[in-house]
TrEMBL record:
Keyword entries, A-Z: Glycoprotein, Glycosyltransferase, Membrane, Signal-anchor, Transferase, Transmembrane, Transmembrane helix
One Gene Ontology biological process: protein O-linked glycosylation
InterPro entries given in the database record: Alpha_mannosyltransferase, Nucleotide-diphossugar_trans
Descriptive protein name: Uncharacterized protein
GO cellular component terms listed in the entry, alphabetical order: Golgi apparatus; membrane
Record field: transmembrane: 14-36
Similarity annotation: Belongs to the MNN1/MNT family.
The organism of origin for this protein: Phytophthora sojae (strain P6497)
Compartments (UniProt record): Membrane
Pfam families: Mannosyl_trans3
Single GO term (MF): alpha-1,3-mannosyltransferase activity
Entries under PANTHER family matching the protein: ALPHA-1,3-MANNOSYLTRANSFERASE MNN1-RELATED
Membrane topology: Single-pass type II membrane protein
Length: 419
């Protein structure tokens, strides 16, 4: 998370990204600031809808047509803090279940659902989203930026995929925003703004699987002089450059993932990492605990990014824990076993600092196929007892949205028997 000098503390925009990244060496949460000129006028990439007066914020909600809200929208919800997620018809049930999960965990912040163009969400999908939450707004970022001449329609069409996430970060007016994937499964409210990384730098990056291949080329050839000298503006300008130009010249990223922290790095803006390396959960279809209990290969798990003695799980990026066909029905026969539906994860990699994998331990798994997601030799510890109940609740919300049994979305219990 990124922090700024005190002189600009009241004028920054922060972003908290909760998504797993296959980057050179990191997974990240990130924050970015608004930049203001000497007169106090916003110089952010888009119009600012917040007026800062100490700790008091006047709520000025952007007008339609590219912002949509339901009839029951709570217009008193502040815009200084919010959750950002990207949803289209194909992941609607996953997104609905995440929204309900956040509310069950006690989060009441504004939720911005970003999409690209008028066809990504049907009216039926929009009605469902408005029905389940009164602090939610839809943002058609592609239509807005196209109309304002920031991007062409041809370029807008190139964002109908995971690249919409950095575009949404560029566009949002919310100051403290948490960007998350719809398949994130949270164990607790992810509002982490009081933890050390966010307080110190305004960003939190999470380490992921390694593999550096692009950085030397980028550092040697990057043209710093073409970007604004103001740190906050430069971060956003560089991010837009990455997603509208550089990604078409060089495949630097596994999807959108490196874009966030690289924008900070190239802008020479401070950013911070979780003190803990990437972890994963055990994969039941891969028989992790039976065949190689010191090497787990399932979905990515991240611990709370603090240095307390008590390791606490924050979330699992777990589409394979929710969707019976996580890679699609047509890919079922080709899906790796560790990416198949994981009905019963029981263990997780212990909380550790970023660690070099011990490949000499491969003998323990020599008879089994080693996937790149496997954390070889890093051990296993049981998942928290509460995880199974929270996972069951999330699955119930997901299936309720899939089948149209919307009454299930009202349930927030985790089905635990009283002691």
């Amino acid at each position: 998370m990124l922090s700024l000098p005190k002189a600009v503390i009241g004028k920054r925009r922060w972003f908290l990204l909760l998504l797993p990244l296959i980057v050179g060496y990191s997974v990240l949460m990130v924050s970015i600031m608004d930049v203001y000129d000497g007169s106090g006028r916003a110089r952010s990439p888009q119009k600012s809808f917040l007026r800062n007066d100490g700790d008091n914020f006047e709520v000025l909600h952007p007008e339609p047509p590219f912002y949509q809200r339901g009839e029951q929208f709570d217009s008193t919800v502040p815009r200084d803090r919010g959750v950002l997620m990207c949803i289209h018809n194909g992941v609607l049930a996953m997104g609905v279940s995440l929204i309900r999960e956040l509310r069950c965990l006690g989060n009441r912040e504004l939720i911005q659902v970003y999409h690209c163009g008028p066809t990504e969400l049907t009216q039926e999908s929009k009605d469902l989203l408005f029905r389940i939450d009164d602090r939610l707004e839809l943002v058609d970022v592609c239509s807005d930026l196209t109309q304002r001449g920031k991007i062409t329609q041809r370029m807008a069409n190139r964002f109908r995929n995971w690249w919409i996430k950095p575009l949404a970060i560029y566009h949002t007016d919310v100051r403290h925003v948490m960007l998350m994937d719809v398949d994130d499964i949270f164990v607790k409210d992810p509002a982490l703004r009081d933890l050390e990384p966010y307080k110190e730098t305004g960003t939190t990056f999470f380490y992921d699987h390694g593999g550096v291949h692009y950085l030397k080329k980028l550092f040697a050839n990057f043209k710093y002089e073409q970007f604004n000298e103001r740190a906050g503006q430069t971060v956003m300008d560089i991010m837009l450059w990455f997603i509208t130009k550089e990604r078409f010249r060089f495949e630097y990223s596994f999807g959108d993932k490196e874009t966030f922290w690289l924008s900070f790095e190239m802008a020479h803006a401070p950013y911070g990492f979780s003190p803990w390396g990437v972890s994963v959960v055990s994969s039941w279809p891969n028989r992790d605990m039976k065949t190689h209990p010191n090497t787990l290969c399932g979905s990515i798990l991240q611990y709370l990014p603090d240095s307390s003695a008590d390791p606490q799980v924050l979330y699992v990026n777990g589409k394979a824990l929710l969707d019976p066909y996580p890679e699609g029905v047509n890919s079922g026969a080709k899906t790796q076993r560790n990416n198949m539906f994981n009905s019963l994860p029981t263990h997780m990699t212990p909380r550790l600092p970023r660690t070099q994998l011990n490949m000499t331990d491969a003998g323990a798994v020599r008879k089994e196929k080693m996937y790149q997601e496997c954390l070889v030799g890093l051990g296993a510890t049981p998942l928290p007892e509460s995880f199974a109940g929270r996972l069951l609740r999330r699955r119930l919300h997901f299936l309720g949205a899939m089948t149209g049994v919307l009454g299930s979305l009202e349930l927030c219990g985790t089905f635990e028997l009283p002691n």
